[in-house]
Write a structure and sequence with these properties.
Layout lengths: L6 E10 L9 E9 L3 E5 L6 H8 L7 E6 L2 E2 L6 H7 E4 L12 H11 L4 H14 L15 H13 L5 E5 L7 H16 L3 E5 L3 H4 L4 E6 L2 E6 L1 H4 L3 H6 L6 H11 L11 H12 L1
The chain binds adenosine-5'-triphosphate and magnesium ion.
Length: about 280
């Protein structure tokens, strides 16, 4: 029943093979997402991260198993609209998602399509622009925004639909460090205020800011754990052609030279604190 448990999304033995392909991209995957949980997804190219994003958002239906969103099966045709409202997907290139000539019109597009009363549309646009810090540029054409601002605008467009979860497929890959930081702050804020976030990224330092990390590879989920645990498994990550975080890799390289650091130091700030303490 919708809204009843802390569990928001559940993948039950999900498999997916693209039409015409004999080999499944994802096989027998079991995962769950709690309400307001912030999850990051990492994995090598081709490991199925984008496919998983589409499956969770209901854009692709699993070829095996099932996906429940707020208790509703994505494979049931009559719940499709409800699921689209609950889970929003943001893609890598924001230009593909911006539709209107003015920032606030772009955010209003979704709620207007839901035929909500105009006062409600205005309130949602206001809240969404505030949430992503774009109120000041509401009257500007989207093409005049920076990359980071465009990506935040794409997120605002989803927020105006009041989703329970946003899934973002490499939203920061085209952004500079400042733009990337801006988007990450918005995502953290979203999760803190009750929206679940699923962030697909190739940036390990970014992924380490989540509550939980999923590692995809070899058709399955190779790890589903807290960032400190995942990014301490440096050998596993290297085998997949990935790295740990900057701090996790530094700790690993020091351990190769015989300097054992306490396990679980995967965030640079923690590494700096630790080094300051022992070197002082
Ligand atoms: N529309 C499609 N039809 C057939 N095969 C596809 C299709 N889209 C993706 N694939 C294949 O499915 C596999 C997983 O692709 P997917 O895009 O989900 O990986 P990814 O983890 O997102 O990779 P990347 O890190 O490069 O974005 C790849 O082998 C890819 O070639
Ligand atoms: Mg991808």
């Amino acid at each position: 029943m919708p809204g009843q448990s802390n569990l928001l999304i559940e993948l039950q033995s999900v498999s997916y093979a693209y039409p015409g392909s004999q080999f499944p991209v994802l096989q027998d995957i079991c995962l769950c997402v709690g309400r307001a949980e912030f999850i990051s997804v990492i994995g090598p190219n081709g490991s199925g991260k984008s496919t998983l994003a589409r499956i969770i958002s209901g854009l692709l239906l699993p070829t095996g198993g099932r996906v429940l969103v707020d208790g509703m099966d994505t494979g049931t045709p009559k719940t499709r609209k409800d699921i689209r409202r609950r889970v929003g997907l943001v893609l890598q290139n924001p230009d593909n998602q911006l539709v209107a000539a003015v920032v606030e019109e772009d955010v209003a597009f979704g709620p207007e399509n839901l035929c909500l009363p105009s006062a409600e549309v205005r309130r949602r646009v206001e809240d969404a622009l505030n949430a992503v810090g774009l109120s000041q540029v509401r009257g500007r054409p989207p093409h005049m925004l920076s990359g980071g601002e465009k990506q935040r605008l794409a997120i605002a467009g989803l927020l105006a639909l009041c989703p329970l979860c946003v899934v973002l497929d490499e939203p920061t890959s085209m952004l500079d460090p400042v733009g990337r930081q801006e988007v990450l702050q918005v995502l953290r804020h979203l999760s803190d205020s009750g929206t679940a976030v699923i962030l697909i990224t190739h940036h390990m330092d970014e992924a380490a800011g989540a509550d939980r990390v999923w590692v995809l590879g070899k058709g399955g989920v190779l790890a589903d754990d807290e960032p400190a645990a995942v990014f301490s498994r440096v050998k596993l990550l290297h085998e997949l052609g990935l790295t740990s975080t900057s701090a996790g890799d530094l700790a690993y390289r020091l351990s190769e030279r015989g300097l054992e650091l306490p396990t679980g130091i995967v965030i640079m700030e923690d590494m700096i604190k630790y080094l300051c303490r022992v070197l002082k």
